[in-house]
From TrEMBL:
<dbReference type="InterPro" id="IPR015421">
    <property type="entry name" value="PyrdxlP-dep_Trfase_major"/>
</dbReference>
<dbReference type="GO" id="GO:0004400">
    <property type="term" value="F:histidinol-phosphate transaminase activity"/>
</dbReference>
<dbReference type="InterPro" id="IPR050106">
    <property type="entry name" value="HistidinolP_aminotransfase"/>
</dbReference>
<dbReference type="InterPro" id="IPR005861">
    <property type="entry name" value="HisP_aminotrans"/>
</dbReference>
<comment type="subunit">
    <text>Homodimer.</text>
</comment>
<keyword id="KW-0663">Pyridoxal phosphate</keyword>
<dbReference type="InterPro" id="IPR015422">
    <property type="entry name" value="PyrdxlP-dep_Trfase_small"/>
</dbReference>
<feature type="domain" description="Aminotransferase class I/classII large">
    <location>
        <begin position="25"/>
        <end position="346"/>
    </location>
</feature>
<protein>
    <recommendedName>
        <fullName>Histidinol-phosphate aminotransferase</fullName>
        <ecNumber>2.6.1.9</ecNumber>
    </recommendedName>
</protein>
<dbReference type="InterPro" id="IPR001917">
    <property type="entry name" value="Aminotrans_II_pyridoxalP_BS"/>
</dbReference>
<keyword id="KW-0032">Aminotransferase</keyword>
<dbReference type="Pfam" id="PF00155">
    <property type="entry name" value="Aminotran_1_2"/>
</dbReference>
<comment type="pathway">
    <text>Amino-acid biosynthesis; L-histidine biosynthesis; L-histidine from 5-phospho-alpha-D-ribose 1-diphosphate: step 7/9.</text>
</comment>
<dbReference type="InterPro" id="IPR004839">
    <property type="entry name" value="Aminotransferase_I/II_large"/>
</dbReference>
<feature type="modified residue" description="N6-(pyridoxal phosphate)lysine">
    <location>
        <position position="210"/>
    </location>
</feature>
<keyword id="KW-0028">Amino-acid biosynthesis</keyword>
<keyword id="KW-0808">Transferase</keyword>
């Protein structure tokens, strides 16, 4: 606390990102990054952009990238909003679309940035318990509210909600925005972007950080009705007109132009996810069915704390949340085959 702080700052409870360790040679399975590099075409595109044009501001609306993403998903560029990572897109959503006086709804076990944005903007929220199987029950999201948000697949559970269930939530909330955070949709799910033309209250966010291996570039986006996008543009242009720099715009565009790289990386994660799940189950772990690039798992006899610190001593980092309902669980990012072997070996000796 300092006398210089705005009073609000005293009460902020900031998000705690997963650790980015400074030591090399760790098996890093704690922040759901891609274990593969980005497409070589992305690197080329960024290198081609390293020139005198850096003295000029980037395109504030990112027209070329928006067009690429719109074409890829079969929507109009006016339905696409770009941000500096989907975290920034989410922040603008909370500010611009979730302040209606009623509490917004999200699951009790979910992405821990949502309560942080609520704290930042003074938005009330109600956390809806997942079922005993850690599933979202659409019926729980049908009462009056100021908006609804959940990831699909959910994080950190990995559980996927079918589009028919999402439609129930959309149908029950015609006057409120329902945000589906699809950070992990490319690992086996079907995107709700296919529903945006039928639901003016649906906003879908995605990121290039996970399935496109560009966490370091910071690019995310939202897709929805132009009226929702317009709200986000108003907020953005009242905050920072240039959230994506020239390198990010060029690299992100190139990522969509290498479909085969993208597909191979996602397929490899899906295959390895199945292998890791089976191996953990053979060791007595309970593993939630996951459609993401991570699994949430617990052992009936070994504590989450013990397992996480035991792995760390072996140079393997996974995420352990000291939170209700999941304090005995580990969230383990699916890595390369050899990283996953190290994980499986490491756990078997604990
Ligand atoms: C990783 C993640 C994000 C944020 O990704 P960015 O890197 O900011 O694009 C958003 N939502 C969920 C659920 C995530 O796991």
């Amino acid at each position: 606390m300092s006398k210089f702080w705005s009073p609000l700052v005293n009460d902020l409870v900031p998000y705690v990102p997963g650790e980015q360790p400074k030591v090399a040679n760790l098996v890093k399975l704690n922040t759901n990054e891609s274990p593969f590099g980005p497409s070589p075409k992305v690197i080329e595109a960024i290198q081609a952009e390293l020139n005198d044009s850096l003295r000029l501001y980037p395109d504030p609306e990112g027209d070329s990238l928006r067009q690429t993403i719109a074409t890829y998903h079969g929507v109009d560029p006016q339905q696409v909003f770009l941000g500096n990572g989907s975290d920034e897109v989410l922040a603008h959503i909370f500010y611009g679309l979730f302040q209606h006086g009623e509490p917004i709804l999200f699951p009790d076990v979910t992405y821990s940035f949502y309560p942080v944005y609520c704290g930042l903007y003074g938005i009330d929220s109600r956390q809806i318990p997942l079922t005993d199987d850690f599933e979202i029950d659409p019926a729980d999201y049908c009462g009056s509210n100021g908006g609804v948000i959940f990831p699909n697949p959910n994080a950190p559970t990995g559980r996927y909600l079918a589009l028919t269930h999402i439609e129930k939530i959309l149908d029950a909330n015609p006057d409120r925005v329902v945000v589906v955070d699809e950070a992990y949709i490319d690992f086996g799910g079907t995107s709700a972007i296919t529903l945006v033309d039928r639901y003016p209250n649906l906003l879908v966010t995605q990121t290039l950080s996970k399935s496109r291996a560009l966490a370091g570039l910071r690019v995310g986006f939202a897709v929805g009705h132009p009226d929702l996008i317009e709200a986000l543009n108003r907020v953005k242009n009242s905050f920072n007109s240039y959230p994506l720099d020239r390198l990010a715009l060029a690299g992100a565009k190139a990522a969509y132009e290498d479909e085969s790289w993208f597909r191979e990386c996602c397929q490899s994660v899906i295959t390895e996810r199945q292998r890791v799940t089976q191996a953990l189950e053979q060791q007595g772990f309970e593993v939630l069915p996951s459609m993401a690039n991570f699994v949430l798992t617990r052992h009936p006899d070994k504590s989450g704390d013990y397992l996480a610190s035991g792995l760390r001593e072996k140079g393997i980092i996974v995420r352990h949340f000291n939170k209700p309902r999941i304090s005995e669980h580990l969230r383990i990012t699916i890595g390369t085959a050899s990283q996953n072997d190290a994980l499986i070996d490491g756990l078997s000796s604990l």
